[in-house]
Write a structure and sequence with these properties.
Shape: elongated
Number of domains: 1
Number of helices: 2
Strand order of the largest sheet: 1-2-3-4-5
Strand content: 25-35%
Number of strands: 5
Helix content: 10-25%
Distance between the termini: 30 Å
Radius of gyration: 17 Å
Structural class: alpha+beta
Order of helices and strands: EHHEEEE
């Protein structure tokens, strides 16, 4: 079961926020999900999403993934599957 993060602190912050801040926080909370059963944290924007799992797995899903870097890209793994 995945749903937006419920939090007493968020409700307190929302009560103190001005209208613009409240709107921004509401939009953000609509994109951040926590799976209560697994502890997975997911950030969503349209068809793109990043999921962080408690076991250390990072899953990036989207129509296109682009990396722009100023230096080297280093990948260290026991096994790399390219297709």
């Amino acid at each position: 079961m995945t749903r937006p993060i419920p939090s007493a602190e968020v409700e307190t912050l929302l009560s103190l926020a001005d209208g613009d801040t409240l709107r921004k926080l509401a939009l953000l909370l609509d994109r951040v999900m926590v799976n209560q059963a697994t502890g997975d944290l997911t950030l969503k924007a349209g068809a793109a999403q990043i999921t962080l799992s408690e076991d250390g797995t990072v899953r990036v899903t989207g129509a296109r993934i682009v990396q722009d870097v100023d230096r080297d890209v280093s990948i260290r793994a026991a096994w790399i599957d390219l297709n």
